[in-house]
Amino acid sequence: MRIDVITIFPEYLAPLDLSLIGKARREGLVDLNVHDLRGFTHDRHRTVDDTPVGGGAGMVMKPEPWAEAFAHVIAQGQAELGASAQPVVLFPNPAGEPLRQASARSLSEEAWLVFACGRYEGIDERVYEHLAARGCRIRLVSLGDYVLNGGEVAVLAITEAVVRLVPGVLGNPESVVEESHSHGLLEYPIYTRPASWTDPDGVERRVPEILLSGDHGRIAAWRHARSLERTRQRRPDLLASQGDADDSTSAR
Ligand code: ADE
Fold first, then answer.
1. How many whole angstroms separate alpha carbon 136 and alpha carbon 147?
2. 93 and 57 within one domain
3. Is the CB of 142 under 6 A from ligand 1?
4. Is position 249 within any domain?
5. Is 170 a member of any domain?
6. Ligand 1 centre from 146 Cα, in Å?
7. Per its database record, what is this protein's job (predicted)?
8. What CATH number is associated with residue 187?
């Protein structure tokens, strides 16, 4: 998979060199390229923003650097992947579709993603029109119903959610089958040894007996019941939208 990120803060993406994503990059499973939007400006101050036409607070990202950046990134990607390759262009945006496990899964099947990190009040609307007219598939994606200062943190989160689902990236592919949201439910409680643990307040806390029984059928049924119970308590909205299995938000 190829991933390009266009941002005015390339350093923000440094954590993508670490851990599983870093390893996937070194192993050639993911080719990740970060581009500085200011590299596509031509004035002394490397200006990427201007005041909103029609008035209002804040600043708006200018269309010219974005169009140049996209032209460069798309030409580079097509040189690598073939002239007919077209990326999915993702704009992290609080007004976008909420990221769900199902969307992460379908994005993990794409050959090429381009992330465009907006800052300030957002990007001039004509950039979206221009890309759509060029035949790009555009998606606005939100991490949740709150406002971040820009798209970079969202790119870190979305990239991690997507790249871990790329075949070969996780050591144990079964872990993505069992985890929260893979069946539209939150994950059941998990335990490790010792079976009896006395906590620092002197209270003995035991692993549920059933997990020590060796009866895989009963263990699976118990886990499913705990998943349902937990989902009902913490995320009743997921049960209300059942039918969209593999389709939900937030972590364990
Ligand atoms: N940019 C600003 N806020 C955001 C959010 N909630 N999700 C994705 N991108 C954002």
1. 26
2. yes
3. yes
4. no
5. no
6. 7
7. Specifically methylates guanosine-37 in various tRNAs.
8. 1.10.1270.20
List, for residues 35-48, the tens digit of each pLDDT value. 999 999 999 999 99
43 marked as part of a ligand binding site: no
Q: Which of 163, 189, 204 is the last residue of a domain?
A: 163
Query: How far apart are the CA of 115 and the centre of ligand 1, in A?
Result: 13
Residue 13 located in a structural domain? yes
CA of 153 to the centre of ligand 1 (A): 8
Mutate to test the pocket of ligand 1, among 7, 99, 121, 142 (most ligand atoms within 8 A of CB): 142
Check the annotation: does 145 bind a ligand.
Answer: yes
SS (H, E, C) 26-71: HCCCCEEEEEEHHHHCCCCCCCCEECCCCCCCCCEECHHHHHHHHH
CA of 183 to the centre of ligand 1 (A): 26
Annotated binding residue 118: yes
In this prediction, residues 15-27 reach a mean pLDDT of: 95
Q: Are residues 114 and 193 in the same domain?
A: no
Please report, to the nearest 10 degrees, the dihedral formed by the alpha carbons of residues 173, 2, 88, 131 taken in order: 170
Give the mean model confidence (pLDDT) for residues 224-247. 84
Q: Does 131 have pLDDT greater than 50?
A: yes
Range of the domain at 232: 180-244
Q: Above pLDDT 70, what percent of the chain?
A: 96
Q: What is the pLDDT of residues 184-210, one digit of tens each?
A: 899 999 999 999 999 999 999 999 999
The model carries a pTM of 0.91
Same domain, 92 and 119: yes
Does 99 carry a binding-site annotation?
Answer: no
Name the domain count of the chain: 2
Tell me which residue has tokens 């994503």: 21
